[in-house]
Amino acid sequence: MYTLTQLGWNNHFQKEWDALSLTDFIPARIITENKTQYKLISETGIFEANLMGKLLYGSEAEDLPKVGDWVAFQAMDDQNGFIFETLPRQNSLARKKAGQEQSAQIIASNIDKAFLVQSLDHNFNIRRLERYLVQVYEFDIQPIIILNKSDLCDDLVEKIMEIEAIAPSVKIYPCSVHDETGMEDIKTEVKEGESIIFLGSSGVGKSSIINYMMGETHFKTSEISDAVNKGKHTTTHRELIVLPEGGILIDNPGTREFGLTDVKKGLEMTFEEIQVLAEGCRFKGCTHQHEPDCKVQEALAEGTLSEDRFQSYLKLQRESANYQMSNYERRKKDKSLGKMYKSIQNGSRKLKNK
Asked: What does the record give as EC number (predicted)?
């Protein structure tokens, strides 16, 4: 079996564990989740587990264990047990829930790196890549860009230059699972004890890359449909996999919608050149659209900042602002409802005491 260190345990989790002062439990890490049923891995093996205590009845959705979380676990036999507590996360990757609801959905927790996978065909999209970078940077996760299906690409150098223009400090690995070009280079990014999540659209080859790293066919794979140019959701759930040679991979279902949450830091890091320009604007809080002496507008006029890049920045900024405002209104409404409920309870007690 694996040691805790091989499973991603570090000083942060040891400190949190010591603070709990638990004697009848062991640390374990969530592999998969299905509502209140979980599969987890510990130094002693793999178990099925259910929630117990306050986790089962008194927790918000975001506080329940997610893939990648460390938990306090008690085994009942050699296959089953109970989860008592979720350890505070080192970080977590979230996105806005699909649809109109303005709330966050945690994808996975305690992540070191994100492999942002695009395929070098019709799936290649700089604007989508910017969206992933913003969200990943927001949660202090190191992005690494994987360009799959290089065997199908006639303009690889040009595509890499496009990416370098918007993400100059991010490592880029072109590869082909089909002929295994560049696959060993990607494996150098997988270190013992590090957790890596795969992000990208359906059909770009995330599961195929994981299968290669595992040396076996662990996940089913399917190609992008030629008819509609959209991938099929081959991966239907998130799963944490520990590699025999070291490293932890989290496969994630392909996403056609990756909504942003509150990502102020992520925007600043992804669009760093716009932040640098903004420091020279005449007005603090310049929107870079109609104010005089705006350095961003000057860069657009001179052609040193592309209009497409700027419009992408504005779009993602608006999306994040909309999430912040809607989330604020929702919390305000929940607080108001809570006060009303408390007032009703107090009124009922007074009537009983009369």
From this structure: 3.6.1.-
Q: Superfamily assignment of 92-251 in CATH?
A: P-loop containing nucleotide triphosphate hydrolases (3.40.50.300)
Look at residue 158 and tell me whether its pLDDT is greater than 60. yes
Supply φ then ψ for residue 72, to 5 degrees: -90, 120
Sequence ranges of the binding site for GTP: 148-151, 200-208
pLDDT tens for 82-93 read 999 999 999 999
| pLDDT of 179 strictly over 60 | yes
- Higher-scoring residue by pLDDT: 329, 193: 193
- Residues of each annotated binding site for Zn(2+): 281, 286, 288, 294
Homologous superfamily of the 11-86 domain (CATH): Nucleic acid-binding proteins (2.40.50.140)
Cβ–Cβ < 8 Å for 20, 85? yes
